[in-house]
Amino acid sequence: MSDPRIRTACIHAGYTPGNGEPRNIPIIQSTTFRYATGEQMGALFDLEANGYFYTRLQNPTNDHVAAKICALEGGTAAMLTASGQAASFYAVFNIVSCGEHVVCSASIYGGTYNLFAVTMKRMGIDFTFVDPDCTEEELNAAFRPETRAVFGETIANPALTVLDIEKFAKAAHAHGVPLIVDNTFATPVNCRPFAWGADIVTHSTTKYMDGHANAVGGAIVDSGAFDWTKYPDRFPGLCTPDESYHGITYTQRFGLAGAYITKATVQLMRDLGAIPSPQNCYYLNIGLETLPLRMAKHCENALAVAECLKHHPKVAWVSYPGLPGDRYYALAQKYMPHGTCGVVSFGVEGGRSAASRFMAALKLASIATHVADAKTCVLHPASTTHRQMTDAELAAAGVSPDLVRLSVGIEDVRDILDDVEQALAGV
Ligand SMILES: *Cc1c(COP(=O)(O)O)cnc(C)c1O
Question: What GO MF terms are annotated (predicted)?
Fold first, then answer.
């Protein structure tokens, strides 16, 4: 089949059963794989043959689902990780080492911010956080000789800023480094960052891709477009021999299409081991099959909720990139003309305490440290996910103390609106 449309790819990509084989992707719940001779297995260890030997590195169930996500993003290679956090870490650590530097949008998920600003900083990797709305000059000024990557989120969780992917890609490429984009909130159904110049895409598949709050997971996809070999001094891990694999050079052996993901699999997965279970990948695949249907409904419901909040006297402000008049509406129209996501942020008149009373009065929407699944849920980031941040850091990340993040589900929108209205009435 030649390049199916995305709705078809969500159902079929990544797995084509042979005659008499299971129609669904089978769950290969096995840590190990059998071989007839030691030589056969040795060839796998030397990366001379393709095949499975131990699920910490690769598993057939996981690989089918990775191949589907790869097709959805239009990439050349992909891998799944045990969480979105692991995906963000591997995606950066695969090409950035101690003493090196990353330029990062300040408007990112709180967990990613902590990973970068605290944990990876302890590993000697420095991050400069830039305002995503900065000018090209300001962006270019953030680069250093030791910069190795640029990172941002298509739609930032929870600030809902929209990344100007072309602007960030242009700056990254002018400095000879790749742009990594976390595409969790938009999903490839609504945005394909590679089409705008991103080089690597990451996902927390825990969110819309899984879609039912079943399984934590992550994904990394490579576009295959970034030419590491133009900068061998900057990316020695990809362009010079790896002694832990008998001196193979990833770009030579696997080409630009496969070098980055192969290196991340055989080095980072081997050594750090954040592999998802085949069972979880199976759940993820079920979610992917209905992703386009669910995204359309999430966006339709979220827009209705945003419109209602915008005109409500007890609401101080609303942020939803799909809402005409929103600060990011124009960028959202450019990068995501068919819809953005189901998450709406707003401030309740009366600030932090009014926000708490609103949350407590909700009946349908549950208070949950989660977003982006079928069930409407709500969170107050300043007192939960972002509580480790100072007020100044919160402001830089676009999170005000009164911000309520409402993840609009796919229930009947009239019931969601009724719930929001009755909770606001009680504030
Ligand atoms: C949730 C989330 C992550 C982290 O993913 P986990 O699967 O929870 O580890 C990363 N990026 C974004 C945008 C997220 O929403």
Answer: cysteine synthase activity; O-acetylhomoserine aminocarboxypropyltransferase activity; pyridoxal phosphate binding
